[in-house]
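Tokens for chain A. Residues wanted.
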């Protein structure tokens, strides 16, 4: 039972992560269109994307 609940939680978190990633990609695109590209913008977006990616990957590996 506990494993099934963790599996469902993981699927829900994956869906939230995909939605988050597409939203962040849209925000990056709009930022580039309106303000241009700068290294600080890319680093900021990269950090914001890497933190949830790292946390979700750890949860995924623990689930196995």
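Reply:
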């Amino acid at each position: 039972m506990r494993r099934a609940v963790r599996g469902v939680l993981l699927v829900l978190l994956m869906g939230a992560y995909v939605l988050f990633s597409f939203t962040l990609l849209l925000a990056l695109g709009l930022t580039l269109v309106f303000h241009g590209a700068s290294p600080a913008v890319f680093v900021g977006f990269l950090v914001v994307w890497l933190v949830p990616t790292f946390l979700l990957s750890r949860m995924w590996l623990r689930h196995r």
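The radius of gyration is 15 Å. Residues 2-63 form one domain.
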